[in-house]
Amino acid sequence: MIVPILYAVLAGLLVGLSRQLNGRLALSSSPLIASFWNHLVGFVALTALGLAIGGLIPAGAADAPWHAYIGGPIGVIFVASGSWLIPRIGAVNTALLVIGGQMVSGVLLDLARGAPSTLWASALGVVLILGGMALTQRRR
Amino acid sequence: MSSTSRLNPLHLLIAFGTGGLLTLMVFFNGELGRYGNALFSSWAAHGTGTVAALVFLALLYRHRPAAASEPKPRAPLWAYLGGISGAATVMLTSTTVNSPLALAGTLALGLAGQVVFSLAADRWGLFGLPKRRLEWRDLAAVLLILAGSALIILVGMGGRP
User: Fold this and answer.
1) A11 touches chain B (CB under 8 A)
2) What beta strand segments (E) does A4-46 contain?
3) Which positions, given as ranges, span the membrane (chain B) (predicted)?
4) A64 vs B35, B47, B89: nearest CB
5) Among candidates B155, B4, B19, which has minimal Cα distance to A138?
6) Residue A32: which residues within 8 A CB-CB, separation 6 or more?
7) Which chain A residues touch B136 with a CB distance below 8 Å?
8) pLDDT at position B135, please?
9) Per the CB < 8 Å rule, is A71 touching B41?
10) Using one digit for the tens of pLDDT, what is the confidence trace for B90-144?
11) Which residues contact B113 (CB under 8 A, 6 or more apart)?
């Protein structure tokens, strides 16, 4: 159980590292150019990995509906947006507000899809998140 | 740039909206993963993303800002490695969602890791980005947002397969 816990925390650290590196690259080019490099370098790395371990293009892939492929273009805007924000509002604010938006929209998506959820906890969670966001807005 | 204590509301909205994009991205990439596997899903997302980025750049080419009066400093080579870090994230999380941690544990611990990294990044201005002074209010915001997220993930998402 220790190994998955370390992996999950490391994955989070790497999300922060990725945003920090792309933010630095954007300072020398532009957020969209940084996002382009992020995707190209990731694509090359994953291609190499896939060729090494096999199973890159699984049998069922051809059956996926076209909309399953929207994630890539959305990711481009996501990475560009993070790279634009981080030098402006800092790493902590960027991480916190993106997490807040992810959680609140996730709750809404689950409601819309009718996914099972415990409503009181989700609602209270959203309230706490909005409170935390309000704190970033208060004057000194 | 010095740290201002108040965030521009426009920045806040953009960041919040960016989180919404992430929800959609995870949802669509998850769909792709159901038909294929996690590696294929991430590989395809990076491939289509590369093409999409080129299309966006071409569309915006005419609207690019005029050259700045002072040339921008060149980026060090390591600044190009964000994509490696992102690809590694996907490999790690695709392992942990299938461990006893499941999706909820993966999400919760991932958020903790992200916040720890961002606190260190601002405190010491890691990787060439500006240092920012952290105040008690930043920590209070961290606690509230992490507590809210933990509630949503660990209790709110309960009952998911």
Assistant:
1) yes
2) none
3) 12-28, 40-61, 77-95, 101-119, 139-159
4) B35
5) B4
6) A76, A80, B53, B56, B57, B60
7) none
8) 86
9) yes
10) 888 878 887 888 777 888 889 999 999 999 999 999 998 889 888 888 889 899 9
11) A8, A9, A10, A11, A12, A13, A14, A15, A16
